[in-house]
From TrEMBL:
Pfam families associated with the record: ARMT1-like_dom
Source taxonomy: Archaea, Methanobacteriati, Methanobacteriota, Stenosarchaea group, Methanomicrobia
Protein name in the entry: Damage-control phosphatase ARMT1-like metal-binding domain-containing protein
Damage-control phosphatase ARMT1-like metal-binding domain sequence ranges: 4-285
Top-rank lineage group of the source organism: Archaea
Signal peptide: none
């Protein structure tokens, strides 16, 4: 996905948000915003990929605020909130003893709802105090784009590119269903902390290694996947996958820039730029397969 003019003010809003998470030093916050504006001015050109700009901007912000994980407490909060809703979500997925195909569809829906965990997105906020209610409402509403039937045929060798903490706990329902079909799962997480995204440290803390066949990282703290910084092992995994499952908007912004597939995008369209690029409406619950 290419950078959209609307991304500029959303990105700077996010810089302001994370700077205030890290410090109450007004001068440092001012510096973070102004220097990130300079980075954006130098990187945002017609046709440039959104991930290139956002990665450069957030790296500069982290440098200025002198904190490589300003979202740490929010990541912990997201995980604890997801753990509270987990038992009810499991009951819904396996209610009335569904077929594997139907249980997979429900698990995908639960994982997509988990994508609501995304603190700092301008104009979008689902607090931990209402997430359980939000989960139930969206679950009963269902997916707005539902390609799960086609996805279900492609589960032999899945590469699952994770997004945020919190939602990763709900992603485990999908892992379980893929394993029940006899499929193999490679989980991909960030190489270093960035926003609320899952890292290897989170994988170990949540014992996710037991849920999948192997875990790889993106090799760095880029937004989404920076292919020029990605380990060769990850690139080979993408090439050999029967299906790539991509969680969240940042992964969409970067993976959609590269010819690869089949790839299933699981996300909430939380902004107009991503929704428009996908040919959808803002506010959709999406499980969209692209070949």
């Amino acid at each position: 996905m290419k950078m959209d003019p609307r991304c500029t003010y959303c990105l700077l809003s996010r810089v302001h948000y994370e700077a205030e998470l890290a410090t109450d030093d007004k001068d440092k916050i001012y510096r973070a915003i102004t220097e990130c504006m300079d980075v954006m001015r130098n990187t945002y050109k017609p046709g440039v990929a959104a991930g290139v700009v956002s990665t450069a901007v957030h790296r500069k912000a982290y440098e200025i605020i002198e904190n490589n994980d300003p979202y740490y407490n929010l990541k912990e909060l997201s995980n604890s909130t997801a753990q509270k809703v987990y038992p009810a979500a499991k009951d819904l997925i396996y209610q009335n003893e569904p077929s594997l195909k139907e249980a997979f569809r429900r698990a995908i829906l639960a994982a997509v709802i988990g994508n609501y965990f995304d603190f700092g997105v301008m104009g979008f906020d689902v607090g931990e105090d209402v997430f359980d209610e939000t989960f139930m409402n969206v679950f009963y509403k269902g997916l707005d784009v539902d390609d799960t039937s086609e996805m279900f045929k492609m589960l032999d060798n899945v590469v699952y590119v994770a997004d945020n903490c919190g939602e990763i706990i709900l992603d485990t329902f999908v892992f379980d269903l893929i394993k029940k079909t006899g499929g193999n799962i490679t989980l991909v997480v960030r190489g270093e902390p960035i926003l609320t995204d899952v890292t290897m440290a989170d994988v170990r803390q949540l014992n996710l290694e037991d849920k999948v066949d192997r875990v790889l990282t993106t090799g760095c703290n880029a937004i989404g996947v920076a292919f020029d910084e990605a380990p060769q092992e990850l690139l080979e995994a993408f090439d050999k996958a029967s299906l790539i499952i991509s969680k969240g908007m940042a992964n969409y912004e970067t993976l959609s820039e590269r010819k690869m597939g089949p790839i299933a995008y699981l996300l909430q369209t939380k902004c107009e730029s991503v929704a428009q690029d996908m040919g959808l409406e803002k506010g959709y619950s999406v499980a969209k397969l692209m070949r």
